């Protein structure tokens, strides 16, 4: 049984593997290079990766 | 810089120290002065075209399409009077037969900051086959549209220049 409002999410971020609905870069649902918003921000230097596992 | 670093500089005798609260990335995104080995590298904001077409929410799509195509573009950014980005019209949206811009636009499109190195934008735009990307400031105002061919061209020039220097 599928919960109401649930979508069939098949796209995953090619960097971290998290499930996403659209590629954060090109906003396409069928993107072979799909990337999530968090990984994109880190790769483009718009934010920094967490420097310490314990949160600094 | 961080508040601690600002206090430390003051303790070292610097008379005029300011804490830029929004942080280093915002400073770079606002295209403020920077120095160091990467400071001279071309960035998205340097290559983006500031004369890219824009339109308002209420305009009829037919009129916008005509204006955009006459200017030789296949994308148009939907902005407020303050140039804050509200939406994007790519080729697909521009081809809609009728309606207002608000009805057909892609709301809240992905935008990129001007400090992103042009090589990275070129690589991403090529890999994702994206012809154009809007470049905005940290407060969401349009700086311009970056075209993939411009990004690839400048990245290639940059790469060739570095190769020459290494010889």
What's the quick description here?
The complex is a heterodimer of chains A (56) and B (167). With 56 residues, chain A is largely without helices or strands.
Describe this structure in words.
The complex is a heterodimer of chains A (56) and B (167). Chain A is mostly loops and 56 residues long. Chain A has one helix and two strands; from the N terminus they run ββα. Chain A has one helix at 37-43; strands spanning 11-12, 19-20. A two-stranded antiparallel sheet of chain A has the order 1-2. The longest helix of chain A has 7 residues, at 37-43. The mean pLDDT of chain A is 79. Chain B has helices at 3-11, 24-29, 44-47, 61-70, 91-94, 101-104, 118-127, 148-166, and strands spanning 54-55, 76-79, 85-89, 106-107, 132-136, 142-147. Chain B is 40% helix and 14% strand. Chain B is flat. Chain B is an alpha+beta fold. Chain B has eight helices and six strands. In chain B, helix 7 crosses helix 8 (148-166). The chains are: A little secondary structure (56), B alpha+beta (167). The A-B interface holds A 23-28, 31, 33, 43-48 and B 25, 106, 109-110, 112-113, 115-117, 120-121, 124, 127-130.
Number of strand elements of chain B:
6
Largest interface: A-B, 14 and 16 residues
* Oligomeric state of this protein: heterodimer
Report the biggest beta sheet of chain B as strand number plus sense, adding barrel if it closes: 4 strands, mixed
Query: Major sheet of chain A: size, sense and barrel closure?
Result: 2 strands, antiparallel
Strand content of chain A: 5-15%
Biggest β-sheet: strands ordered side by side in the sheet of chain B: 1-2-3-4
N- and C-termini, Cα separation of chain B: 37 Å
Count of DSSP-assigned helices of chain A: 1
- Which strand order do you get reading across the main beta sheet of chain A? 1-2
How many strand segments of chain A? 2
Given helix and strand content, the structural type of chain B is alpha+beta
- Residues in helix, % of chain B: 25-40%
**Uncertain segments of chain A of ≥5 residues (pLDDT<50)?**
none
Structural class category of chain A: little secondary structure
Shape of chain A: globular
Mean pLDDT of chain A: 79
Helix content of chain A: 10-25%
């Amino acid at each position: 049984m599928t919960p109401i409002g649930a979508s069939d999410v098949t796209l995953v971020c090619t960097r971290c593997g998290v499930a996403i609905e659209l590629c954060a870069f090109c906003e396409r649902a069928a993107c072979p290079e799909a990337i999530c918003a968090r990984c994109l921000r880190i790769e483009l230097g718009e934010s920094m990766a967490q420097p310490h596992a314990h949160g600094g | 810089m961080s508040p601690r670093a600002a206090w430390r500089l003051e303790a070292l005798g610097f008379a005029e120290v300011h804490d830029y609260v929004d942080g280093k990335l915002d400073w770079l995104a606002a295209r403020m002065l920077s120095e160091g080995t990467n400071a001279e590298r071309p960035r998205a904001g340097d290559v983006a075209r500031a004369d890219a077409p824009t339109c308002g929410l209420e305009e009829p799509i037919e009129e916008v399409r005509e204006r955009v195509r006459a200017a030789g573009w296949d994308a148009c950014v939907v902005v407020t009077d303050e140039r804050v980005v509200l939406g994007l019209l790519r080729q697909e949206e521009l081809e809609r037969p009728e309606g207002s811009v608000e009805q057909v636009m892609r709301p809240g499109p992905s935008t990129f900051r001007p400090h992103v190195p042009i090589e990275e934008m070129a690589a991403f735009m090529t890999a994702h086959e994206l012809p154009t990307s809007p470049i905005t400031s940290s407060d969401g105002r349009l700086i311009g549209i970056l075209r993939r061919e411009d990004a690839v061209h400048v990245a290639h020039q940059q790469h060739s220049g570095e190769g020459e220097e290494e010889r």
